[in-house]
Specification:
Length: 555
């Protein structure tokens, strides 16, 4: 519920810090005092379009903060968690209007978009009247309200799930069928490409080795030249490196007897001479092996040419050819089993459709019964609210199965006839704002047990009524307040007397500027305010006694 509102420099409100309580809260005051400013501020906090002209004259910005207790609103808690904006059981919404700039919004201290404000607002507050978002006019809300009233919300959710399963399987089947015309040609192409790539018969490592062999064979002349020159230097020249090392070893051996410290050096030189000798033997063998059959060079060049030709054809590197083969093999296997998949999907789709139509039919029957009961109940409340002869009905229009959706097999529409003799018309086309407010009140009272929005606001719900009807309106609002939090802007003392909390809105001038303040009234102050509403400018003791009696009757 809404438990706190803070307003700074909005319209004629310079500063307002207000705590709200559960139950019915009445807002009263003289005409023009600014009773609707609190509702306007609440609408701004919950995503209504911001107008910089609403900023108080002489100020650079306006600020609205609305605090909510979400302990009894699991839908809002879930939404906040999904958005990463949750902060426990409380929610703080803040809106800033900046002169010459864009407004800014925050939820629990984190920046939020206007769309996010509207989404959380629809879960927290429902404003009934001529100036705000009225969820009862939305077809989806009407459908959900009927399902909640009839006690078949779980069946409706199951129907929605079955429809989504049917739709998903139908889409998958259509995709396979659409691809069927091209599948034969694609199969032929894939089979040819798989055969061609498989004919290469080489993996990545073999391709690398072939490339290395081609580079080796292409450099035989240089390899022979370098090998022969090095062999000459280390073993065949006069003197060679080997001769020099062997002579050095002999000389060190002669003097090592004089100085034993030379012995390790002699061993190193002798070892080097042996290694040079082994290297010379290796070079001779290497040069002998370089006498390659010229046919081998041609064979390697031809094979490597095939590899590069395929790589160019398939627009990849040589080493990516084995991967291209595996990719096409996998696609080929999938297409070859497509007919089997299509048959399975068709069977699953048909089963899902049958299940959907069966459950949707049961839902439609339940909705028909609930619609009749709801229409009678709301019509009765309309009569109590001064709309004698008015009728309310829930129209269920069957849909063609091809038009059916997650909402079922029928279109649901709230219809109303506000006056005797008038035909039923969609609730959204009711012309009178006062009538719409009272019809909204009748709907909310009739469905109080199944609504999910914790705070309801009625703006000028008492337009055009008085006397005994006004008292009934007050009682119904108080009854609704026992289920959910209700805020009501009213001119009627009969309504104000039924409130659990009474807020008085007044206007005053100070330092050349107009200000609005809202104060919570105690019992004595309420007597005075209700007496004013009863007696106008001349308030007598009799009027006060009447006001006190009204409060006593309300409890």
């Amino acid at each position: 519920m809404l438990n706190h509102v803070y307003i700074k420099d909005l319209a004629i409100v310079s500063a307002l810090d207000l705590d709200l309580t559960p139950g019915l809260t009445a807002l009263t005051g003289e005409t023009g005092a600014g009773k609707s400013i609190l509702i306007d501020a609440l609408g701004l906090a919950l995503g209504d379009k911001a107008d910089p002209g609403m900023i108080r004259t002489g100020c650079e910005r306006a600020e609205i903060i609305a605090g909510f207790d979400l302990a009894a609103c699991p839908q809002a808690l879930t939404w906040l968690a999904e958005q990463g904006l949750d902060e426990g059981p409380d929610c703080l919404v803040r809106r800033l209007l900046v002169e010459g700039g864009r407004s800014r919004a925050f939820v629990n201290g984190r920046p939020a978009t206007g769309a996010q404000l509207q989404q959380i607002g629809e879960l927290l507050v429902d404003i009934h009247g001529q100036h705000a978002h009225q969820s009862l006019l939305r077809p989806a809300t009407q459908r959900d309200l009927l399902d909640a009233y009839g006690g078949h919300a779980d069946l409706a959710a199951a129907v929605a799930d079955l429809y989504r399963a049917w739709r998903d399987q139908d889409r998958a089947l259509r995709r396979i069928e659409a691809e069927g015309a091209d599948r034969a040609a694609r199969l032929d192409l894939l089979r040819y490409q798989v055969e061609e790539l498989a004919g290469l018969g080489m993996n990545v490592e073999q391709i690398r080795e072939l490339d290395q062999e081609q580079r080796r064979l292409g450099s035989l002349g240089r390899l022979q030249e370098v090998g022969a020159r090095l062999l000459m230097q280390i073993d065949e020249a006069e003197p060679s490196v080997g001769d020099t090392l062997r002579h050095a070893g002999t000389e060190l051996a002669d003097v090592a007897g004089i100085d034993p410290r030379l012995a390790p050096l002699q061993e190193l030189i002798d070892g080097a001479a042996i290694q040079v000798q082994e290297a010379a033997a290796g070079l001779r063998q290497y040069l002998a092996d370089l006498d390659v059959d010229p046919g081998l060079i041609e064979q390697v060049e031809t094979r490597l040419g095939q590899v590069h030709d395929l790589a160019r054809k398939y627009r990849c590197t040589a080493e990516e050819l084995p991967g291209a083969l595996e990719t096409r093999r996998a696609e080929l296997a999938g297409l070859e089993h497509a007919d089997e998949d299509a048959a399975g999907l068709a069977a699953a789709r048909d089963a899902a459709r049958a299940a959907y139509l069966d459950r949707a039919g049961a839902l439609g029957a339940a909705r028909t019964q609930a619609a009749a009961r709801l229409g009678e109940t709301i019509s009765g409340f309309m009569h109590q609210l001064g709309m004698g002869g008015g009728r309310f009905a829930v129209a269920l229009t069957p849909l063609d199965p091809q038009e059916a959706g997650a909402g079922g097999l029928e279109r649901i529409e709230f219809q109303v006839s506000a006056n005797p003799g008038q035909p039923l018309a969609p609730l959204a086309r009711v012309a009178s704002g006062g009538e719409l407010s009272r019809i909204g009140l009748a709907i909310q009272v009739a469905t109080a047990q199944c609504g999910s929005v914790p705070t309801l606001v009625f703006d000028e719900v008492d337009v055009g009524i008085g006397g005994g009807v006004a008292e009934i309106v007050g009682r119904l609002l108080r009854q609704l307040g026992s289920e959910r939090q209700v805020l009501c802007v009213t001119h009627l003392p009969q309504v104000a007397a039924q409130a659990h909390q009474h807020l008085k809105v007044s206007k005053f001038a100070a330092e050349g500027q107009t200000h609005t303040r809202i104060q919570a009234l105690d019992r004595q102050d309420r007597v005075e305010e209700i007496a004013r509403m009863l007696g106008g400018t001349q308030i007598t003791q009799k009027t006060r006694d009447h006001a006190d009696e009204m409060l006593g009757c309300a409890g």
